[in-house]
Amino acid sequence: MRITKSRVARAITAAVAVGLIATGCSSERDSDNKSDGAKDTFVFAGAGDPGSLDPALASDGETFRVTRQAFEALLEHESGGTKLVGGLAETWSSNDEGTVWTFNLRKGVKFHDGEAFNAAAVCANYDHWFNWTGTYQSSAVSYYWQTIMGGFAKNEDKETPEANYKSCTAKDENTAVIEVKKPSANLPGGFSLNALAIHSPKALAEYKKQDASAKGDAITYPKYSQEAGTVAGTGPYKITKWNKGNKEVTLQRFDGYWGEKAKIKNLVFRTIDTEEGRRQALQAGDIDGYDLVAPADVKTLEDQGYVVPTRGVFNLFYVGMSQSANKALKKKEVRQAIAQAIDKENLVKTQLPEGGKVADQFMPDTIAGYSKNVTKYPFDTAAAKGLLKKAGEEKLEIEFCYPTEVTRPYMPAPQDLFELMKADLEKAGITVKPKAMKWAPDYLDATEAGSCALHMLGWTGDFNDGYNFIGTWFAEYDKQWGFKDKKVFDAVNAGSKLGKADERVAAYEKANEAIMDYLPGVPISSSPPAIAFAKNVNPPAVSPLTQEVFSEASFK
Amino acid sequence: MLRLVVRRLLQLIPTLLGLSVLLFLWLDRLPGGPASAILGEKATEAEVARINRALGLDQPVYVQYWRFLKRIFELDLGTSTQTGQPVWDEFVLRFPATVELSLLAILIAVAVGVPLGYFAARNRGGWLDVTAVSGSLVGICIPVFFLALILKQIFAVQLGIFPSYGRQDTGINATDVTGFAVLDGILTGEFDASWNAITHLILPSVALASIPLAVIVRMTRASVLEVQDEDYVRTAEAKGLKRSVVRGRHVLRNAMLPVVTAVGLLTGSLLSGAVLTESVFSFGGIGSFIRTAIDARDYPVLVGFIMFIALVYVLINLLVDLAYSLIDPRVRVH
């Protein structure tokens, strides 16, 4: 018994000692904050973990948010805008057909591993992607390469799109020429994607030694893309650590950066997967900023003194109609009745953040190609009733799917949006059968398969080209919409075949008019998503494309 | 004793096989698949079909199951469709966080619950008893995630005493040896890192401890009340043994038998039940990863993690049985 007591006493003494040491001792490890008390680590919270440190293998925003700070593409977008500007290429031009693209490269640029940036490096990257084999040809791995450049040197799957990339030539040290087989609406915008950012040739040689593999029932990403150390770009920050257990990626200022150096030494991206968790972490002072702010939190945070800028409008929210799920939707009068039954102004006024706009076509008005001459379908319940009567569908019953547990930049509070639209449709005499579904994969699967007669979805643009919006939905038959209309498809594809951007703009305007004449669904709104920062932060210019460059941020 | 251990370990085989069949049947009935979760809004019919083919998900469920069994025998649990990393690596990365959280939660529950239950029984009908009984009822009734949110709002956001999320502060740059943040700090002499990890553990573990604490209080109280009226306790007192010896050796030791069983079961359930608490505190353990795996239909992770949790659960219960035999020698005889 005495022995036990003695052990307890020793254990308590030891615990107290550990506590004293722990609280009293100062670590000899590197500290992320300066000894003078000034902060030099900026912590930003996103909603999900990045998938890869190599942006070429990614297609999601959380990955690009991290990699954008470390990798740069040939072209970039102006800070806080959607206009294409020089990135690693100072200037660029193309031939009349839009098949030969010449890039005059920036001089004096170094990669994080000390390698020099030049035309050979650019071609090494494009040829690396073009020659991908095996699992790299899966669209889950190389989505953006396939979207912008088609397939590969040797397609291994008959359904992989035909390659549009032809070659890359280093004409001289600072001039790279990229040739494609056919003009594409995805160019030059595609050259600005972070998925096509330029990596160090030395790093590429390492990448080639490691393979992605499809073993078992998933794709295994190569090791270099899952831990810091190998990847090397030219950006203002270099990736130094990915602590998956603590859900954080750490980046450090790259002192050899060719442009204006980052103002804050360390940048950390952490994952906090709930909106509420991110807001509370900001309020607790544990982070310096976060994305995907709930519209309901914007005013609260502003009132408390936080900096909550809203991004420019670059997305579109719509109500989709699947004609294969409900035959009544094949009648234009029915589609028009639904369009006129929904009070879009009210939705924008009550559900969207400040700056939200009513949409009258499947493209926000900030995109070149937006037409002022599309057919409009103003809110009019009586007219909607009349149209249903004319179509012989006065007792129309329709299923309306909506997602749960999700907020998208274009669709804050989906359930509230649904409830308002349901009430509008019921006022016009339509019986709505609600169907709530979990966002991923249930809801996305159902909408993609065309099994939801009415559903809510949207899109945030990758770059400023109209085809990035209308081409996504209406270039060909798509189960989501379940219609075949040659006039619409031809009008949409007409623009994609033109090499000159200004010629494409006129074609997109006509395409928008054709789409809205046909009315495959109801464009509802475009909204500016908000991003929040701590009171002591001078935030970076916020980007409509959600492409913030954190090297611009500083502490007050 | 050895026979008991061997028998229980052999029982694991049919248990895990049965569980794996049930899991596969359940996953087969779930709508959707990982392809649209990977592609999001960009999913098209052709893209989804290509990804399903690449992942082998276009095969019948029995083919997928057979492939899974073959891999198990090769000690390969497959690859996460979310992260593209081996399931085993993902498990090893996250399991220490959940173990730390669960152990601290059960430690709090036992350290507070056993004395509270004991003294409540000793003072039956008194203010301590009434408080303990009604308090434990509240503890059982309050949803854990709700308690977690309240604790976070008060102690992290408003008072700023504890961190609001994660396992360690950003920039702590702790050396990773075992994956157990507290232990690693002690092993490497980085005591501030250990302390930092402890401060991150307190709020989630208090929230997580609420239900086990309530169960242990009530169970200890009931058990002590039952045991203290037993004949052998009266006999011991009549023999003139010291009151502290009677209480410690005869009352508490015998009253602990059902409590030990409960602690074993509760520890097992904590390992799998920290899903919501981990999500609220963005704590990178297996609970929050399972939640995202369900969203993403990450079948290999769901099957692998649930099988592992089942294995751990069975092993913990085996340990409980062994502990039982130490506390009560009659168990060894039988």
Present the secondary structure layout.
The complex is a heterodimer of chains A (556) and B (334).
Chain A: H1 2-24, E1 41-46, H2 61-67, E2 75-77, E3 84-86, E4 89-94, E5 100-105, H3 119-130, H4 143-149, E6 165-172, E7 175-180, H5 201-209, E8 213-215, E9 218-220, E10 237-243, E11 248-253, E12 266-271, H6 275-283, E13 289-291, H7 295-303, E14 315-321, H8 332-341, H9 344-351, E15 357-358, H10 381-390, E16 397-404, H11 414-427, E17 431-438, H12 439-448, E18 454-460, H13 467-474, H14 486-496, H15 501-518, E19 521-526, E20 531-533, E21 537-538, E22 554-555
Parallel strand pairs in A: 1-12, 1-13, 16-17, 16-18
Antiparallel strand pairs in A: 2-3, 4-5, 5-7, 6-7, 8-9, 10-11, 11-12, 13-20, 14-18, 14-19, 15-19, 21-22
Chain B: H1 2-29, H2 34-39, H3 45-55, H4 61-73, H5 87-122, H6 127-141, H7 144-158, H8 181-188, H9 191-227, H10 231-238, H11 243-273, H12 275-280, H13 286-295, H14 299-327, H15 329-333
